[in-house]
Amino acid sequence: MKLFLLPLLLISVISPLYATAADATKPNILIFYLDDMGWAQPGAYGGKMAPTPNMDALAASGVRFTQGYSSGCVCSPGRVGLMTGRYQARTGHDANPTKAGRELLLSETTLAQHLKSAGYSTGIVGKWHLGDTSAEFLPAARGFDYSVGTVGNLGEGKGPSFYRGKDLINELPGEPITSPVYARESAGFIEANQGKPWFLLMSFNAVHSPHVASEKWLEKFKHLSKHDAAYAALAAEADEAIGTVMARLRALKQEEKTLIFLLSDNGGAYQNAEMGGLRGHKWFVWEGGIRVSWLAAWKGHIPAGRVSNEPVIQLDILPTALAAAGATTSIPLDGVNLLPLLEGKTDKLAPRELYFRFGVQQAVRQGDWKLVKAGKDMQPMLVNLGRV
């Protein structure tokens, strides 16, 4: 009997050690997700309206993609692509949810659910915008262990605009200036989850309207018009929040253990955004509506200071995160694993097409060529993006 119990005892002792060792090889996954930020808003992309030293530092520490895309040209569809790794048209969610019935389908598996199954602590801080206020559609029911933020856009709709866990709440301390609130909540989540790998989506309301910023930042941009000053202040405040989270990451010696992405949910809103000469803006499948700032960094794994002209799309984040976590899925995905490209093992991805749709607008990109039908009564236009 004793001889039989000894192997069981050894297994019970060794198994947790193996689990801990396996967890130690899984990187944390951190996504900074801006809202309505123009492709050329960060200084690393040529932006001049507002200083973005923390975004620029992130770009310098990893890969800056010049041709990175969102899968949608407005808020919610792009978030579907990020959360599922699948084109939002597959779910019928190719417009913002204005009423019940436009939620992210419960049959879809989110990035948080995938990573939770792989042993991760999961958190979202910020804007959700993937359904109504029913409990089954809130982040807490979609794979997030920790969740706090806005259900949709600030000041939109009636009733509670915010959520904390399973509860709807009427306000967040510090709102409507949300970026500092999100920085504090995100830093707290990271500190509380050092014992296991974690996934955090820090999902900003900035720089989406309403353009309400703190007096500290408004004062710095008083030389601009009132509209531009508020927009620039929001961008700078979001950048400061990113800096706060990165500082906590470094203080906890987590930077080398963390795969980081930064991008926007869609292109910039035309009134203020720096577009870098791209045609169109949010609401359109022209480049200005879908091409976004797109950064990836992982200290010690992704070579610093690289610039890639390879077309990538936010659908790629889910399969890349799963590959980094050593996880797999049988669900058909539209995105691809970018790790070989990020780590410098290749400069090119396998040829593929990227698709975009919003209402009657449609576009497809293959290589440098993009075919666009930008309206019901408009003729398709073929554009060579290698020449623009």
UniProtKB/TrEMBL annotation:
**Entry keyword annotation includes Iron:** no
**GO MF entries:** arylsulfatase activity; metal ion binding
One Pfam family recorded for the sequence: Sulfatase
Q: Record keywords: Metal-binding included?
A: yes
Q: Matching InterPro entries, A to Z?
A: Alkaline_phosphatase_core_sf, Sulfatase, Sulfatase_CS, Sulfatase_N
Recorded superkingdom: Bacteria
Q: Give all residue intervals belonging to the Sulfatase N-terminal domain.
A: 27-327
Q: Which SUPFAM superfamilies match?
A: Alkaline phosphatase-like
Q: What PROSITE patterns does this protein's entry cite?
A: SULFATASE_2 (PS00149)
Signal peptide bounds: 1-21
Alphabetized UniProt keyword annotations? Calcium, Hydrolase, Metal-binding, Signal
UniProt lists the family membership as follows:
Belongs to the sulfatase family.
The protein depicted here goes by the name Arylsulfatase A-like enzyme
**Which organism is this protein's natural source?**
Prosthecobacter vanneervenii
